[in-house]
Batch of 4 targets.
Target 1
Amino acid sequence: MSDREPLFSSRNIKLLTNPLNVDNPITVQVLGICSALAITVKLEPAVVMAISVMVVLVVSNVVISALRKMIPPRIRIIVQLTVIATMVILVDQVLKAFAYEVSKQLSVFVGLIITNCIIMGRLEAFAMSNRPWTAFLDGIGNSAGYGLILIIVGFLRELFGSGEIWGYPVFEKIGIYNIGYENNGFMILPPMALIIIGVIIWVQRSRTKELIEES
Amino acid sequence: MKSFSNTYIFVFSTIMVVIVAALLSAAAMVLQPLQEKNIEIQEKRNILSSIRIKSSAKDAEELYKKYITASFVINTVGEEQEGIDAFEIEMGSQMRKTLEQRSLPVFISSLEDGTKKYIVAVHGKGLWGPIYGFVALNNDFTTIYGTNYNHESETPGLGAEINTDWFGAQFADKKIFNKNREFISIDLVKGGADPESLNEVDAISGGTLTSDGLEKMLYDCLGSYQTYFKNQMKNNK
């Protein structure tokens, strides 16, 4: 193939960076909201979830992309689901063996990665029609975009809901409780995650011209 | 679009399924010992938590060795059974047996202040799945020292509250026998427990079925132990 493009052509770089901003799976495509609300009470599970989704998405993307010419179109959804489900079970097993505490906190949500629309969406829309390398980049980009929002929300909710960052009692150390501050219990509840995501979408839309819809 | 024959589709799916099955079985076999170790540590942490000792995954083994000084297995008439490790007993399967056939674990812990606590296991049904835990009694075999409850799939914020500190703390100093040494277990009361009461604690609002399950679990499981408790009370005198 003489027209092979360089590994990091501008098109490929876009695959990595677009999902972080103008094509973000959560804030722009509004996919994968369910898990974003459920596991962002604290930063640690949010990070573990982000990493888990990244592993699942990247591997599934590459596998499906490598097999794309062999997969019969009639059963492609089943094949995609099988690959995703296999990866999710593997991730779940590994977490149970090496990060038991976190896996207990994430509970069913690791298993529910299978139903995360971002993953099926990327496999069907991208991996089925692109080469493995670009599918790999697309997987990294999209899961990073998902993870980025999870981490922002997790950080804010843990900080204002429990006064901690990664379990470290920041607010207690700087003595903010002594002047009458109290943790906001509402931050711990799922509705607040939705509100935070809403605010992120608001900020993002008002700053990014491409996303402003013409009325 | 390229078309594929039915034979191809069948062969493709078969190969795919075989590869996936092999991969998952291999992973399960390799990781199983590590997972079981984690579950064992969690169990030890639960036992420690029932005697109000906080532990982490790292120090649980050490603290368990330090505080849990003995463990044995009894039957429902209070006789000790030889040759069974109390830690290995699955309370869930024991509770499905008839009363006479049950083997019940007892863990004895010696605390720093010199008192002995007797920890017994409980297992029952919540709303969605099993609930289980440990109840620690003072050496009068009547007064609860601490509890630890866990659940597999109760509703977060409702039934799942049974493993929060506030819920567990209510049980401290409640009594499972009345003055006449009759077994009364613990009642979970809706609409506020009487603070003067010997054996009432608040149920969880919105978690009625879990609360009922927990009440029944305590009645059934502590009830299985009652002959042992009564024998020990007589010995104490």
Target 2
Amino acid sequence: MSNDIGNRDFEEIIRQKLDSHAVPVPGGWEIIKKSLTKRRRRRRMYFIAVSSVAAAAVFFAAVVELPRAPKNPDLPPIVKVEDRPETDLLPKTPPIDDKARRNIDVPLRAGTQTTVDAGDEKRPDAELQATVLALNRDDNGKLAATAKAAAAVLPSTVSDTPPLIRKGSVRIAAELPMLKMLGTYESDSDRYSGKLKPGAAQGTAQSVAQSVAQGTAQGDAAQTKISAAKRLPETRSNGWIASFTVGAENSQAVNSGNTQIVAADPILGLDENSKEYIKNTYKNEMMIPDNVAPDFSLPLSAKLSVRKSLSRKWAVESGVNYTFLSSKYQWNRNTVKQRMHYLGIPLNAVYYAVASPQWNIYVSAGGTVEKCLHASLSSSERTTQIDVRKLQWSVNAAIGATYKIARNVGVFMEPQIGYFFDNEQPENIRTAWPVAIGFGAGLRVSL
Amino acid sequence: MEEQLIKGCIKKNIRAQQQVYEKYAPMMMSVCLRYVRDRNIAEDVLQDGFIKVFTKLHTYSGSGSFAGWMRKIFVNTALEHLRRNDVLKYSTEIETAFYIENDNVSAIDKISADELMQCIMELPAGFRTVFNMFAVEGYSHAEIAEKLGVREGTSRSQYARARAILQEKILKLK
């Protein structure tokens, strides 16, 4: 019992003595502050990345997919010839003679099914049927049904190339695999899904056509298009690709622990005249003490660019990008915010390391020149403009992946690394940490 | 005042975080040093602990004292470090330890907190850890056994031996 009381006394005394014991910790806060800031920037990076992808998806849905959705649910879906494998487009039935070739020039209502004779000499094995679904939207927005002469719908024409009939920007797509003449549809739903009634002896040819005005078969064009699509999705048309990118750089990711910008000489690498110029122009004007280090925010950028394919593997890219840099000086109870807006022109060489019809991986490298359009320092009391005369030059490299989400549209993600040269810019995150790691994401559209 | 600081920290206000750090860092450094003898490592543990405090502050219910809640975080952070570096596994075994009667408790009362800290820091890592957890933090032997992955009996015997060595050191100070 006395031993227990003794134990409790012992532990109680120990606790009392050590409870408020303290050991001074000089200078620890700066490290913790940097660590916390870095975590926030990393979270912001993830947020930006996810938002970019989400925005790209929404953009795609709103701008690309929705207008393509069928307006009338009763109409059969439009089948894209280009997306089918080339082998599927080849005829599976023996060709018939030229007499079978026949134009159809009969106005039809949308969804109407009609039977077309194969010629004067009817085929003994089956009655040829063709369903021509023609949708033509006139100026009043009404659906008019017009079917025009798809020579392609007849089997005799399919022995050469898959037909693609064009009139201006309007396209007729004839779905050749449907000309298999194996049977008839069992039901409407089957008709829309392309499922044929098994064992039916009656041959059926169906052409799914869109916007028929005056059909002209252009098999060569279609074939060219198909082979180009197989070659490289982004270079399949005329080799031009436009892209929209949003991104951010995180210089601290590669420069953590570098605290040399703090205090004594906040403007590094400039000659004395430049230092005096910059200090006199804005820091002194805002009464910012020399030993106050700025807190830099994550640089944010948006870029519109075009890429021109030079060959299967190489492309050049240029465009225009906008970057927003901000930082904050805080001392005692004072806060001064610095905001800088840059507009730049990048020029990059792009090499496609891996390319498939659905996706590709590429590396790019090049340089960018940027002009500061507007820079200012502002406190609660006053604002002063910073006159930035020199251009900011930088070099950069990136590795990216593009995933094709539609025929002409792809989403991409692109980690980047860049180096910003010392071009006498006002103190900003790039002058403090010239090496920056960034992340970009966006949409690419083949033109 | 403290409530305002906590709210500010939850909102990621950097000034509030700095004030919390300045207020509690010396006290928490003492906790870290009791577990991790090396000052540089203790500073690392202190930084890790504060990062945890600031990122998990929203889980503080407000029922107990804020300092007590923080102390637990720093103890756990220090234990994580010891476990990660196998310090507990390879702690020096004390072959001879002797027990000093409780009437010598008064000797502890006569030394300063700094002297007591120094004596605790000189204990081997395993003994020091169990001693800190039981005598200072108030964990039961069952809790210590669970946290350190040892048997409850091991915790009891380690504590008894740690206490004996500590008392011997204190007597030598006098």
Target 3
Amino acid sequence: MIYMIMKEVIMAKYGEIALKGLNKSTFEDILVKNIKRRLKPLGEFEYTRRQSTIYIEPVKEFDLDPAVKRLCTVFGIGAVQRCAVYEKDMDVIKAKCPEYLRDTLEAASTFKVEAKRSDKSFPLKTPDIQAELGDALSDAFPHLKVDVHDPQVTVFCEIRDKGAYVSAGRIAGAGGIPVGSSGKALLLLSGGIDSPVAAYMMAKRGLIVDGIHFQSPPYTSERALMKVQTLCEKLTAYCGDIKLYCVPFTEIQEALRDNCPEEYFTVIMRRLMMKIANRTAESCGYGALITGESMGQVASQTLRAIQCTDAAAKFPVFRPVIGMDKKEITDIARKIDTFETSVLPYEDCCTVFTPKHPKTRPVLSEIEKAESAFDFEPLINEAVENITVYRYKVGE
Amino acid sequence: MIYLDNAATTRPCDKAVKAASDAARDTFANASSLHKMGINSEKLINNAKQVILKRLGCEGELLFTSGATESNNLALFGAAEAYKRRGNTIISTAAEHPSVARALDRLEKLGYNVIRLAPKDAPDNFEEYILDSITPDTILVSCMTVNNEIGYITDTPKLYRMIKRKHPDVIFHTDAVQGFCRIPAAGDLISVSAHKVHGFKGIGALYAARGVRFAPMIYGGGQQKNLRSGTEPVELIAAFSAAVEAYPTDNSHYDMLNKLLRDRLSALSGVKINSPRDRGISGILSFSVQGVRSEIMLHFLEEEEIYVSSGSACSKGKVSSVPDAFGISAKDADSTIRVSFSHENTVEDIDKLVNRLEQGIKRFRR
């Protein structure tokens, strides 16, 4: 018997954009564009959209593992499934499919078959497909037991117009909605554990995230900047292309140290950072600011301190990790592979001139008064003018 | 560029670079090959061994390793293993380089009794202090020739002599990385490194006196008498030997630079010199600029292309225990700058360094 040569395709199933109404196609367009960009360096693919699924077929046959891995970091995809495509002939399916599923099924002890027949001209009905394929797999792997309620492996068999698609198990996608579908925001990126996680979380809600980083040489080293650059590179896997604005901050910090009361250093510094971020957001078209603040974690992240910082911001400030504890944040940091970089021990601008006893319950009016002791405006202008922009591209 | 971080590493000298490139072109064969080309490589290696042994003033075996970290590990683990039937105690100092200190931590975990003596407890007669600490259970003593952070010298020829006279069975190892080519070192096992003497990184050596046993750590083709398997890197060995031959035999230039910098620093207020005057190596000068954290000063000097080391201080809690072994307070340790010379440094370099330090003190001291 001669079988059709087996092809392998990847199905990317929509996450929550499947639930969208009339504007669904807008989200779909962005998602497809993001997927194409992510997969482009790997080779040529053909893309077909059908029924809340994007079918991704390699033009030439090659190892799909790297593509699957990349797709799992694209927001907007709910699940990724790789599957074999066969001729729509039950005998062919039964003969070929055990080999394709061997690795997965040999490692399992229970399974079930879930069939779907969208091509109604196919002679077998759904329950018959399930029964026949189930029998064939049981014969091929005698150790397997059928368990329709809680199987270790679910074998999917879908009879579609173009062919029969068979796969075992789907991999959870990154979820969320496609990056770019919600506009763009500017992230205050220190190099610690929390801010990259904040970037990941807001990108998941469809924001294009770019970073702004404050540098204070010689108080901070070149390595602190390299660390932030590495974090940006790592974040591109989830966030797509990232711009990083590096702000020279030394003179502002020295002026702060020389002119303001020590216990207010941190809060005023945060406010000055916000003011610079405001400028950048205004001139570069960002709609919001993002920080990695977590309630009560450090002195500048108490409710009062956040009130004071917020008052300096002209944009909505998103703090996606505000309600998370350190463990939850580090778990995500490990998942997105930023943790190891974040814990490198280089001084960042936030720890320069840390007061011995920072005010944990600052009052806005007092802060504003202390801040007005010095005219920071010229220094802010100078810092903004001297921003250096770095760009990080997906897959580079 | 003013490079004053020669205790970290040195610039490979021209002769070393040439020796490496010549060897790569002409003497690249595997020294284990039976043919003539292999023999030529072997000859080059043997010749290099003689050059290094001569500079060490030692006769015995010399093994090439990947560097001093491997040499120290090989010496400590190898000797601890080889002599474990004699006893269980290893005596060392609290000022050792991490490649000795961490290896000893590991040996301690494996069940050895490790004693770490601090120079601050006997700064003037540290050698006698070590000698007196030797117990009948002691199998191995390891003490660095020159401390890498502050330049404190232990007189290892004297110590070695005393140990052998009183306890002939005790093996003495010294990490001679910082003193090599400058001051005499002696021991049953001596570790040296090429890149501190203007050779390349990736190569070091372990000297072993005749009759000293140690177990290998790397198994393979049986090169270097089965003690250190792996194809000998002829190019790196050639460069090592050329660097040693080219290294000045006279310390007067370092002595002069050291004295000059000491004098200039003593004129600055709030600068405390950590390196001992009478038993410090002239190539290293460590000092604390009180009230200025080392890292800030380091980056400030760097802006003028002056490169030094922060000595030992490390941010975020990872503090070296070495300053404490010399009685340097945590506060002073946090503001430590280590300057280390090569023969390429000039009086002008010192002037520029001190001027910049003064500016830094004005700007940063709180």
Target 4
Amino acid sequence: MIEVRDIVKRFGGLVAVDHCSLTIEQGKVTGLIGPNGAGKTTLFNIIAGFLPPTSGQILLDGEDVTGLPTFKLFHKGLVRTFQIPHELPLMTVLENLMLVPEGQSGENLLNAWLRPGKARSDERRVRERAEEVLEMLEMTHVRHHLAGNLSGGQKKLLEIGRTMMTEPRVVLLDEPGAGVNRTLMGKLSEVIRKLNQEKGYTFCIIEHDMDLIAELCDPVICMAQGKVLAQGTMADIRGNEAVLEAYFGGGAARVVESSA
Amino acid sequence: MLGLIDYAIFSLCIVGIYGLLSLALNIQWGMTGLFNIGIGAFFAIGGYTSGILTSPETTAHVGGFGMPIPVGLLAAMVLSAAIGLLVGLVTLNLRADYLAIATIGIAEIIRLILQNEGWLTGGVRGMANIPRPFEQITGGQFEWAFLVMLIVIIGVVFLALEAARTSAWGRVLRAVRENEPTALASGKDATRFRLEAFVVGCAIMGLAGALYAHLFSFISPEAFEPMLATFLVWVMLIAGGSGNNKGALLGALVIWAIWSGTQILTGYLPAELATRAGALRIILIGVLLIVLLVTRPEGMLSEESDRRRDRRREEREDLKD
């Protein structure tokens, strides 16, 4: 579905992503792990069109989408969330969600002025969709609250809620579980699984919480120093020497082996 | 007594024109977060456009086409919007403070062109004999009619801007203002929306400029100096409540009252003090701006209060369903 081909991203002398190639397969929940600074978020930003790569290609369903701006990728079905929630703080939860759907006639100023009836009926439709999403996230009670006043976990849910306001084909989640308590985490993975199985969304998830990854993701891709280190099921990754070395360093693999 | 009423009506006409400028800035800054400090340029373009098209034949400057005033108003809006579009295409990818510097530079360029290209504008001598509306019908006492016309125009602009503010379009503008990456990640072409807001604002500024020209019947580059045409409008919007259309109008009224009230007061001072008082008034407005920003940054009528009312209405509709 998404093919990352030999992507390089340099920031001055720093090589954040170094000849990285990987595939996000249709219908699967792919996990992307790796120690801090491995280049995961940079790669996400490149896939989602927030950063141009220094070299390499991104293919979406075989089409070269390298360097396409984010909002155009959105219309091709590629949606992302942010590591640090990017809610619109002075807008209500409902408005945060209602922003998203494409093709709203009221987004055209002339329609808003000259065809208020059509704009209003679109607005109602979008509103209903937002209410459904909020119900699914069990956030209906805060729908009129300003998004800036939500708790950290609720903001995370709102990030996912935004992706549910459209019909994405592939969703990039950047650390959906970071700073989220266990109960909410359970809900989060339940929502992700449901969207994957019932609606057929393809997911790619960056996450440091290995339980969440183990529960949801197959395959799992491990990055370090801008490169793909290993790829496989979570069990494969756990036993991979290069991965252990990258996370713990200093011959950690040997220590783990000898203690086992 | 009659003189006082005439003065009040004339003042209200000026307040109305500033109200339009303030509304125009509100769509750019209040709703979209575009730091435009080149208001004076679009105000001037509107004034000169309508002046050239509607004034009677003359050798003092280009034009003198004697066209009807409504044609002048419309052309003023179109040309200001078109120049706004050009400026916007070049500058709107700049972030806040850079946009501010770019717009102030462009505004000064436009003002200096208007001042120096005498064949086009009459240069420093200004442009005279711009027709006043309703002058024949009212036998010279046109201010009343002008004020009524102005109120109707402001009403239409206000309703249009309120409709825009509460529409999906307005929602995207707020999203762009609050967090552009989110707007992009929601599939919105932020640049397009910023450009639209900028152009609509410029068109209204042009309209205000044209009305100003027809009210005074005379314009010169001095009328469009940054102090009067840009800075004062900013203070009005911030004082009234950035993001709130009613606040934009209220701010225009209150700040104009202070501005012109202090002018009357300085009239009572001895001559040598009066000249210094002119500078003091500018300082006074500056101090007022600082005090406002510290004590009530959201302005007299905050955006939040308006949005709360929108939400309450929405919740009431929820209950009805």
